[in-house]
Input
Amino acid sequence: MKPSEESLAFGGQALIEGVMMRSGSHMVMCVRQPDSSINTSTLTVKSRTRHPILGLPFIRGIVMLFETMYFGVKSMMHSANLALEEEDESFTITDYLILVVMLVTINGAFIAIPYVLTGLLGITGILFNVVESALRLTMFILYLYLISKWGEVARVLQYHGAEHKAINAHEAGASLDTETVARYSRLNPRCGTSFLFLTVVTSIALFAMIPQSTYWMRLAYRLVLIPVIASVSYELLKLSDKHRDSPVVKALMAPGLLFQRLTTKEPDPDMIEVAVKALEEVKSLTGSGS
Output
């Protein structure tokens, strides 16, 4: 028996020695302890996208982006504290503001650096957009490659693969025992990697429509359009998930899945066990059957 549409809304994130699984109402963090036990923490969440205004198309994408950053870093800090056996401190408004600054800075760098580099080449017209887009895509690929080669995060990438396998097995209506889950793909079309790829593609399309103006005005346009890029990319991701069985959609999402080969690694059985436990816990809290 396949899961309900509501249960398809489960998403997750790899942590330090663990996995976070989230539904629309709960978040579960499972972290493997040094003694091999699994520490499980739960949190009731209320997405702002349920608000009649904040939940509107093209607005909800921006809200979801900040929520994902907030809960993602909160979960990562929680798992790090457990791994280091330190006291788990509360997440303050200052931490949230730091996240906002970090998000704007990272996105701004991906937008501004290719633009500035292309400008230094003295290229104009349509060729400017082509070269700028190529540089942005190259930066994105290089970023993923460096992350995948960073030794310190190798196990996190394995937990990322375990998270995807558990969700894929659940959505297929399969048994959630470790051996069965291990047979499923470590790639998932709703992954944040696919979302990042969509933001790159969306930025290429939007920037091509920016009217010719001064150098600094065109740069300003690009920075101001960051929220628009995020919102459009989110809607495209939602649309692709709705039509996930379409051959056309599969072809369009293939590059995003290809990039996930850099951001996920095949997990060990004990990692899959952690991911399954997190998924089963969030399922029980939301009342979703399998």
